[in-house]
Write a structure and sequence with these properties.
The structure holds two protein chains of two kinds.
Chain A: E1 3-6, E2 20-23, H1 28-38, H2 42-46, E3 47-48, E4 51-52, E5 56-60, E6 63-64, E7 80-85, E8 88-89
Parallel strand pairs in A: 1-7
Antiparallel strand pairs in A: 1-2, 3-4, 5-6, 5-7
Chain B: E1 2-5, H1 6-19, E2 25-31, E3 39-43, E4 53-54, H2 57-70, E5 72-81, H3 90-95, E6 102-107, E7 117-124, E8 127-131, E9 133-136
Parallel strand pairs in B: 1-9, 5-6
Antiparallel strand pairs in B: 2-3, 2-5, 6-7, 7-8
Classes of the chains: A alpha+beta, B alpha/beta.
């Protein structure tokens, strides 16, 4: 099951500058684990203490995964995942 | 160096005063690869806070989709500081994630009114460097 994952600029050093990569997983947690196998280190940029980092937004299709179940959000073939760091500050 | 039109500078400063006491925020877009700030896009501060700003998560996705569709890039990311100097705070540095962007800060702090502060920085891997701002009339 291949899922298209859009990678933000700041994480492209992990993906050899690719804007979009393929990964597999039946839910978001599994997908991130799979991404980290291929692109070592990217998992740590997305997760902290086993949860998504507060200032990393992840979307499945058009929905923010915070409203879908976070790392447990289900994925199906043909879904598209977009990772975007929050634009935020103090 | 950041080159920016007087019109955009005035619009950002006006927005910062309208949204005071909350911080205001937004971006200026330009054609991909051009580095030219040509399209001002004010954003909503979803944090509605005098000490924090954050683009709403849906707005953020819509913004990046729009940029992709129009073959644009984010040239400037701006926000206001309400009571402090117009330079990146520790949180600004921690969350800065667009190494190609000019981070513009303005301040509405009272002690300098009616003067204005409008400054631009690069924030790359936690390192801040201020740059010159050239305003075109």
């Amino acid at each position: 099951m291949a899922i298209d994952v859009r990678i933000p600029t700041i994480l492209r050093p992990y993906t050899k500058d690719q804007k979009s990569v393929q990964a597999t997983g039946s839910n978001l947690g599994a997908l991130i684990a799979d991404l980290d196998l291929t692109y070592a280190g990217i998992g740590e940029r997305l997760l902290e203490d086993g949860a998504l980092r507060r200032f990393i937004n992840v979307y499945i299709n058009d929905e923010d995964v915070r409203f879908l179940g976070g790392l447990d959000s289900q994925l199906k073939d043909g879904d598209s995942v977009t990772i975007l760091p929050a634009v935020a500050g103090g | 160096m950041l080159e920016i039109s007087r019109e955009f500078v005035d619009a950002i400063l006006a927005q910062s005063r309208v949204e005071y006491p909350d911080e205001c925020c937004g971006v200026i877009l330009g054609a991909a690869g051009s580095g030219k700030a040509t399209r001002l896009k004010p954003m909503i501060n979803a944090a509605h806070s005098p000490t924090f700003y954050e683009f709403d998560s849906k707005d953020l996705l819509a913004l990046y989709r729009e940029i992709d569709d129009n073959d644009e890039e984010i040239v400037v990311i701006y926000h206001s500081h309400t009571e402090t100097e117009a330079r990146p705070s520790r949180t600004d540095i921690a969350y800065a994630s667009e190494p190609e962007a000019h981070y513009v800060l303005v301040s509405t702090r009272e002690e300098i009114a009616p003067a204005t502060e409008f400054r631009s920085f690069r924030i790359i891997e936690g390192v801040v460097s201020e740059e010159e701002v050239s305003i075109t009339e």
